[in-house]
Design goal:
Mean pLDDT: 89
Radius of gyration: 27 Å
Low-confidence stretches: 59-63, 184-189
Number of helices: 22
Helix content: 40-55%
Distance between the termini: 53 Å
CATH superfamily of the largest domain: Glycosidases
Number of domains: 3
Length: 706
C-alpha cells in the first residue's frame, strides 16, 4: 500500500498509519454496503460529500454493514490540547470509520480527508486503517480572485466549481474583486470591471471584447461588449451562500482609491483633480463629501444585499498602488501630506464599515508601509482611539522574495496589526504556466515567523496552477511542510499517479526545474517573463507599447546566445519526457490533460525559438535554402496549432479566449513569415530572413494581436 501520508494534501498534523486496508463494501451497479450514521443535529454537507464520492465509484444506497459515523464534539478528549477551530479526528477500524469535528467545519474537513482516502479496486471499495488527528496552522487560507484574469467570464457553475475545488484543499477564504482592477486590453482599452450591479448607479457597467483564432473551428472568434455574468446575472449573493455551505467565507474587495478609473470617469465631481481643478478621471478627492456619499452608497448596497443576508462581516477596501496620479491636487488637498490624506481616508472608510456591522476590514500594506511609512505604533494608537484597531487587517502582498516587504526594518513593527500575507499562486494564465513555490513557501515562512493570521494568495482560477494551489493549501494548513518542497513533489505525484508514483515524481521534478521561480532574489521564470509575448511587453514599459515582438526576443537571444540556447535546450529536454509521460500515463483526468498541455507548451515554445534562430543563422550563411525555412515553419505552425487545439479542449471556457489569444500571436508571426517566403519566391526574388526585425513580413492581423 502507498503510504497514506503521501496521498493526502494538505498533509495532516498527526497520522497513525496502521498499514492495512479494510474493505468497506462490495458493490454492483445498484448498491454498496455502507451505512452513513450521523450523531446529533448537524448539517449534512459532510455526509453529502461522502455520498457523492461513493456515487462516483458506484451507485449506492444506505444499506449495509460497514458504518461511517459523523459527529461534532468539542469536548472530546482528543481535542483537549488543541485550541483550534476546524480540528477533527478520523478513526478507521475493521468495522467502522468515526469522523469527529471540533465544530461543523472540522467535521466537513474530516469528510474531505476521508474522501481523499477512499479507493476502489476489482469492484471493491477500500479505506486504510488509520488514526488521524488534524487541525490548521493558519486560521485564514485562501485566494483573492481579481476582477479580471478570466473571472469576468465565470458563470455561476464556474464559481461553484472553484469553491468546491478550494474546499477540497481545506482552503476557507475567497475574496472576489468586485471593483478595482486596472490595466489594458490588447486593443488599448481600459479593462476595469465592476462585478455587482449597483441599483443606485445603474450606469456603472463594464463591457469587454474577446478575439482569438480557433483551430477547432478554423476561424477567428470575435465577441464585443460582453458583460460579466457575475454582474449581468447578479451572482455574488449566490456565490457567498454556496461558499458558506462549503466552509469558504466569500468576501468582496472594492478598491477605494487606487486602481480605479470607472467611478471617477462616471462621476467626475468625485475624481482626483489637477492643480487647475480639472478632473483626472482617476482616483478620488478625499476632501469631497460627495466622494463618501458615492462610496458609502455602494458599500451599503453591497452589505445589505449580499453580506448581511449571509452573515458575512468581512470587507476588503484595497488601497494598493495608490500612485501620484491617484492623488488629488485640488485646493483642499494639494498642501496635505499624502500619508495624512491616506490615513484620514482609511479611518473614514473603516468607521463607516464598522457602523454597518463589518468586523474585519482588509487593507493592502504597500502604500501604508512602503510609500508612506506609517505602519507603526503611532498609527496603531490612532486606530485604537478611532475604535477601528480590532477590525483592521493588513494584507501584505509579495510576489517576489517577501523579505523585500520590510526593507530591513525590525520585525517588531510588522506584526503590531492583525495581518495576512498574500503570495502569488499564478494568475497570468494566458502565458506559459509557471510554478511559484519559492514565493508561496517564502511568504508562508514569514507568516509563521511573524504569527500572521493567514495566507490568502493573489490568484486566478485555472487548473494549470493546480500544483501551486495545493502547495498553498499544504503550507497554510500544516506549517511544518513549508520547507519540504522535494517531499511535496513526491506526494503530488502519488496523489494523481499512485500506480506510477516514482516515474511521475521524476517527471514533476523535471517540470519543476523549468517552471519554477528562477532565483529567490527575483522570482522570475525566464520562459514566461522573457520569451512570452505578454511579459515581453509588460516588463519593459519604458520603451512604449506595442513592443517589437518577436524581434526583441531574438535580439535578447543573440546578445546572450550561449546562455539562451543552453537554456532553451534545457526547457526542451525536460519538457519532452513529460509530454511522453502524460500521453501514455493511462490517466484520463482533466489534471493529466492540463499537465500534457503545459508540457507541450514548454516544448513548443523552446522548439520555436531554437529552430527559427538556427534557421536565421544557417540561411544567412547559405547553409540552408528557402525551402527548408518554409518546411520548418510549416512544422512549427502545425505544432503550435496542435497545442492550441488541445488548449481549446482542456482549458476552462472562461479562460480559453485569453490563452488562445496569446498563442495566436505566435501562430500568426510564423504564418506571416512563411507566407512572405512563399510570395517572395513566387515573384522570383530571394526572401530575406532578419528575425531581429520582422516588420517586412508581418500582416495587419499580427499588428492587431500585438
Amino acid at each position: 500500500m502507498t503510504d497514506i501520508v503521501k496521498t493526502l494534501i494538505p498533509k495532516p498534523q498527526k497520522v497513525e498509519d496502521r498499514k492495512e486496508l479494510v474493505k468497506i463494501a462490495e458493490f454492483n451497479k445498484f448498491s454498496c454496503d455502507v451505512v452513513l450514521s450521523i450523531e446529533g443535529d448537524i448539517p449534512c454537507e459532510a455526509k453529502n460529500l461522502i455520498k457523492k464520492k461513493l456515487y462516483d465509484i458506484c451507485v449506492t444506497d444506505t444499506l449495509g454493514s460497514y458504518k461511517i459515523t459523523l459527529k461534532t464534539d468539542s469536548q472530546n478528549p482528543a481535542f483537549k490540547d488543541i485550541d483550534k477551530n476546524e480540528a477533527y479526528f478520523i478513526d478507521i477500524s475493521e468495522t467502522e470509520a468515526v469522523l469527529c469535528g471540533i465544530d461543523e467545519a472540522g467535521l466537513f474537513y474530516a469528510a474531505t480527508t476521508l474522501v481523499q482516502m477512499l479507493s476502489s479496486k476489482c469492484n471493491d471499495i477500500f479505506l486504510p486503517k488509520c488514526y488521524i488527528l488534524d487541525w490548521p496552522s493558519f486560521e485564514k487560507r485562501g485566494h483573492f480572485v481579481e476582477s479580471r484574469y478570466g473571472s469576468e467570464f465565470f458563470t455561476l457553475s464556474d464559481w461553484y466549481d472553484f469553491v468546491d475545488y478550494m474546499a477540497s484543499m481545506k482552503l476557507n477564504r475567497l475574496t472576489i474583486g468586485v471593483y478595482g482592477c486596472w490595466g489594458h486590453q490588447y486593443d488599448n482599452r481600459k479593462m476595469e470591471y465592476i462585478y455587482v450591479p449597483i441599483k443606485k448607479y445603474p450606469e456603472l457597467k463594464t463591457p469587454k471584447n474577446s478575439k482569438y483564432y480557433s483551430v477547432k473551428e478554423n476561424k477567428w472568434v470575435h465577441e464585443d461588449d460582453i458583460i460579466p455574468p457575475i454582474y449581468n446575472e447578479d451572482l455574488l449573493g449566490k456565490i457567498i451562500a454556496y461558499g458558506k455551505k462549503k466552509n469558504v467565507l466569500v468576501k468582496p474587495l472594492f478598491n477605494s482609491l487606487g486602481h480605479n478609473t470607472l467611478l471617477p470617469a462616471v462621476f467626475p465631481e468625485i475624481s482626483a483633480k489637477e492643480d487647475d481643478g480639472t478632473p483626472k478621471k482617476i482616483g478620488f478627492c478625499t476632501n469631497n463629501d460627495k466622494t463618501y456619499e458615492v462610496l458609502f452608497n455602494i458599500y451599503d448596497e453591497i452589505i445589505e444585499r449580499y453580506l448581511k443576508p449571509n452573515e458575512i462581516y468581512d470587507f476588503h477596501i484595497g488601497l494598493d498602488e495608490v500612485g501620484e496620479s491617484y492623488i488629488c491636487r485640488c485646493e483642499k488637498c494639494r498642501d496635505k501630506e499624502h500619508s495624512y490624506l491616506m490615513t484620514e481616508h482609511i479611518i473614514k472608510l473603516c468607521k463607516h464599515l464598522k457602523e454597518k456591522g463589518m468586523k474585519h476590514v482588509y487593507i493592502y500594506h504597500d502604500m501604508l508601509y512602503q510609500e508612506f511609512d506609517i505602519i507603526n505604533e503611532k498609527l496603531k494608537e490612532r486606530f485604537i482611539s478611532e475604535g477601528i484597531y480590532d477590525e483592521v487587517v493588513i494584507d501584505w502582498w509579495s510576489y517576489e522574495d517577501p523579505v523585500h516587504l520590510f526593507y530591513n526594518k525590525a520585525d517588531g513593527v510588522n506584526n503590531i496589526f492583525h495581518s495576512v500575507i498574500k503570495p502569488d499562486t499564478g494568475y497570468y494564465h494566458w502565458a506559459i504556466p509557471t510554478e511559484n513555490n519559492e514565493n508561496i513557501r517564502a511568504c508562508a515562512l514569514l507568516a509563521k515567523k511573524l504569527s500572521f493570521e493567514g495566507i490568502e494568495s493573489y490568484s486566478s482560477m485555472e487548473y494549470c496552477y493546480d500544483k501551486n494551489y495545493l502547495t498553498l493549501a499544504d503550507v497554510s494548513w500544516n506549517d511544518n511542510e513549508i520547507e519540504k518542497i522535494d517531499e511535496f513533489n513526491e506526494r503530488y505525484a502519488c496523489k494523481y499517479y499512485p500506480e506510477k508514483a516514482v516515474q511521475a515524481a521524476e517527471i514533476f521534478n523535471g517540470l519543476h526545474n523549468i517552471m519554477k521561480d528562477e532565483t529567490r532574489e527575483s522570482y522570475i521564470n525566464r520562459a514566461c517573463y522573457k520569451l512570452e509575448y505578454y511579459f515581453y511587453g509588460y516588463r519593459n514599459k519604458q520603451t512604449g507599447l506595442p513592443k517589437d515582438f518577436p524581434g526583441g526576443v531574438y535580439k535578447l537571444i543573440a546578445e546572450n546566445e550561449k546562455e539562451y540556447t543552453h537554456y532553451l535546450k534545457f526547457l526542451k529536454e525536460n519538457a519532452a519526457p513529460a509530454v511522453e509521460f502524460f500521453v501514455n500515463s493511462g490517466n484520463v483526468s482533466l489534471i493529466n490533460s492540463i499537465w500534457l498541455l503545459t508540457s507541450m507548451h514548454y516544448y513548443a515554445l523552446s522548439d520555436e525559438y531554437l529552430t527559427i534562430y538556427s534557421l536565421y543563422k544557417d540561411y544567412n550563411s547559405d547553409k540552408c535554402d528557402a525551402a527548408k525555412v518554409i518546411n520548418e515553419l510549416e512544422r512549427l505552425i502545425s505544432q503550435r496549432e496542435k497545442l492550441m487545439l488541445l488548449a481549446e479542449e482542456v482549458r476552462i471556457p472562461p479562460n480559453r479566449s485569453t490563452y488562445l489569444r496569446n498563442m495566436s500571436v505566435f501562430r500568426q508571426y510564423m504564418l506571416d513569415l512563411r507566407d512572405y517566403f512563399k510570395k517572395t519566391l513566387e515573384i522570383g526574388k530571394k526572401p530575406k530572413l532578419d528575425v531581429m526585425d520582422l516588420s517586412y513580413a508581418m500582416s495587419s492581423k499580427f499588428e492587431f494581436l500585438r
